[in-house]
Design brief:
Elements lengths: L1 H5 L13 E2 L18 H5 L40 H4 L12 H15 L2 H9 L2 H8 L3 H7 L4 H4 L4 H9 L5 E2 L5 H21 L8 H7 L2 H5 L6 H12 L8 H16 L2 H16 L6 H14 L5 H11 L13 H17 L11 H6 L12
Antiparallel strand pairs: 1-2
Helix pairs in contact: 10-11, 10-13, 10-14, 10-15, 14-17, 15-16
Length: 377
């Protein structure tokens, strides 16, 4: 009775399956060579055709029109209304179930704009010894890709990973055709977060790793999903310049290449990344296990049954993908230009000729960036 009274209102777990189970005879979640049953949906979808976001029906008479869907395969809605306040705090965007998809995106972008710190970004731009070390680091996917041995001979599952795989739901998950682009785009976000954390910790995850991976994913942190992989990776790239410890455009560009490299190694590599993310979220004290329930566990099951051909097509879509600074919508070019001019003035004054570095904090104290400076007073 006392325990019941002390328990906060709301559920601590998700209720019911998030996705349709097609094949109850699915024997094992993984085999040694990841033999997968043919995915009928994958074979019908042309990944190279341009995709577009369906029109959002806001203000329609039916209250269900325009409602925000999320979770693996976009099969959930209204979930966070029934969860405890502690679980709702996992998300950056609050009251997500009362918002439309467009409102969720607007809220996310507003939070990002408020969180962007010019000082931090410029510090990582000008004083980048640590960044150089991270860029020179060779993660496992580079070693595997450069090895003459077949990928499956280099990528093996540890005993702990095999134990987890045996415990996964024995399901063959079906993703609706219209949800497939979102499903792949979210996967790209997840791999971006994983690659960023792995490279910046040099392969040794920390207590902050689960925060890093989820924070860089607009889907995991805000339940904001994208119909194209380019838009999804752009959003993750942008968040990597706003939230984590290292906020460097060159570093994030390298992470983008890392994502492409991991996808090029196929399902086995993707599964290993997903298993790590699942473990990180399960081991946190911030209730991020709910993200495993919503997304990661289903991804661990689903990725084993997609065709390698589908993964290769996603690689083609990502091939050569890169972003320019103006695409981040953070005024990076203007910020860097103003900082460079301030540094030149500081150096030209001769006040600090004995040192190679200028105190960036002093420079930033007198630096202001006005995005509306074209307006007439």
């Amino acid at each position: 009775m006392i325990t019941k009274l002390l328990t906060p209102p709301g559920s601590w777990t998700l209720m019911g399956p998030a996705i349709e189970e097609l094949d109850s005879g699915f024997d094992t979640p993984v085999s040694e060579d990841l033999e997968a049953s043919k995915s009928e949906t994958d074979s019908k979808f042309d990944w190279l055709l341009p995709q577009s976001m369906p029109e959002e029906e806001v203000g329609a008479g039916d209250a269900t029109l325009g409602r925000h869907k999320y979770g693996f395969g976009l099969q959930q809605h209204g979930v966070f209304r029934g969860l405890t306040e502690e679980l709702r705090l996992v998300l950056d965007v609050k009251d997500v179930d009362s918002l439309t998809p467009g409102q969720v995106r607007a809220a996310r972008e507003e939070l990002e704009a408020e969180a962007f710190e010019e000082e931090h970004y410029l510090a990582d731009l000008f004083y980048n010894e640590e960044i150089d070390e991270l860029l020179n680091f060779k993660p496992w996917w580079i070693e595997v890709a450069n090895s003459p041995a077949p990928v499956n001979d280099k990528l093996y599952f540890t005993e702990d990973e095999l134990d987890v795989l045996k415990e996964l739901p024995r399901q063959h998950l079906h993703v609706p055709l219209d949800a497939l682009p979102y499903t792949w785009s979210t996967l790209a976000e997840l791999i971006f977060g994983y690659a960023y954390d792995y490279r910046t910790t040099m392969g040794s995850s920390t207590v902050e790793s689960s925060w890093t991976v989820t924070k860089l994913s607009p889907t995991l942190s805000c339940l904001d999903s994208f119909v194209t992989i380019k838009d999804a990776l752009r959003a993750s790239f942008r968040r990597s310049l706003i939230y984590p410890l290292y906020r460097n455009f060159e570093l994030s560009s390298q992470i983008l290449k890392d994502v492409c490299k991991i996808f090029s190694l196929g399902r086995r590599a993707l599964l290993k990344c997903l298993l790590t993310i699942r473990k990180l979220c399960a081991g946190t004290q911030e209730n991020r296990y709910i993200l495993n329930d919503l997304y990661i566990t289903s991804y661990c099951v689903w990725i084993q049954t997609v065709q390698e051909a589908a993964v290769r097509e996603i690689c083609l879509e990502m091939a050569g993908l890169k972003f320019e600074k103006p695409e981040m919508d953070l005024d990076l070019v203007d910020t860097e230009t103003a900082a460079q001019l301030a540094l030149q003035e500081e150096e030209g004054s001769g006040s600090n000729t004995t040192t190679a570095k200028v105190d960036l904090e002093q420079v930033m104290a007198g630096l202001t960036i006005d995005s509306d400076d074209d307006e007439v007073e």
